[in-house]
Amino acid sequence: MAKEGLVKSVLYIVNVLYAIFGLFTAATGIWFFVQINEFVALRNTNHYLLDYRVYWPQLAPWFFILLGLFVMMVALCGWFGTSKESRGLLGVYAIFLMLIVLGQVITATLIFVYVDGEHTDRFIKDTVYDGYYNSQSNPDVFKAFGGIERKLRCCGANDARDYRSWRNDLPLSCCQDSYYRATCEFTDKEANERLGCSKVAAVYTKIISSCVAGASLIISLLEIAGVILAWKLYNSLREVEHYITERKEGETEC
């Protein structure tokens, strides 16, 4: 009984961690969705450049949101199964956890395989280029593109020289302390040292995707521990039920 109590206590803690992980995963998906939408919105402002194709960076946020919600539901199932000592709930909990682990491993593998792929680079570069060209004729897009330059500390699509063909100076978003300056010259050292937004965005996306995939694999180890503990408690409860049944049958015979 002492061993069973220890397993239950550990399972309680593990399920709290699962719930926190699920909440964090869903929040990460929402954040990633907002970041991706900034780029896609820039690209689709020009109706002649509308692209209705779907790329994996656009699907990844939805997967993380759904995964996070599913993990929280499974953690709740594990919590009630442990507290009520329900073998049925514990069995369902363990099966769902195994499915989550399998899904995370497959997804992490796909991210590592495709994060450096041609489709990822094409999606990011085409989006940044289209956003940059839209900014030349649309003040709202110009302002939004400037926000991306500030956030990523980049300048232009390729580099600061992109602006020479249609401006007499650089946008303030390309310069350090841009909110406190009236102009930004083409000779500005800070602006010329910055990389183009297409390069920075590509690196930025790959780093975030790889970190999330790596964290997902690490968490899967904790989930495997949860599966083992759930099955231990499941078997322990089965032995108890078997013992009680045998005892009742013996009493009846007497």
Could you give a quick summary of the protein structure above?
This protein is mainly alpha-helical and 254 residues long.
Written description of the protein model:
- With 254 residues, the chain is mainly alpha-helical.
- Helix content is 76%, strand content 0%.
- It contains seven helices and no strands.
- The protein has helices at residues 2-43, 56-83, 87-114, 118-135, 139-152, 189-193, 197-253.
- Helix 1 crosses helix 4, helix 3 (87-114) runs antiparallel to helix 7 (197-253) and helix 4 (118-135) crosses helix 5.
- The radius of gyration is 27 Å and the shape is elongated.
- It starts with a helix and ends with a helix.
- The model has no long low-confidence stretch (mean pLDDT 81).
User: Distance between the terminal alpha carbons, to the nearest Å?
Assistant: 27 Å
Largest sheet: none
Low-confidence stretches: none
What is the strand content? Answer: under 5%
Number of strands: 0
Given the C-alpha coordinates, what overall shape results?
A: elongated
* Structural class label: mainly alpha
Can you give the mean pLDDT? 81
- Topology pattern, helix = H, strand = E: HHHHHHH
Radius of gyration: 27 Å
Helix content: over 70%
Helical region count? 7
Transmembrane segments: 12-34, 59-80, 92-115, 207-231
Family: Belongs to the tetraspanin (TM4SF) family.
InterPro entries: Tetraspanin/Peripherin, Tetraspanin_animals, Tetraspanin_EC2_sf
Organism: Iphiclides podalirius (scarce swallowtail)
Keywords:
254 residues, mainly alpha, 76% helix, Tetraspanin_EC2_sf
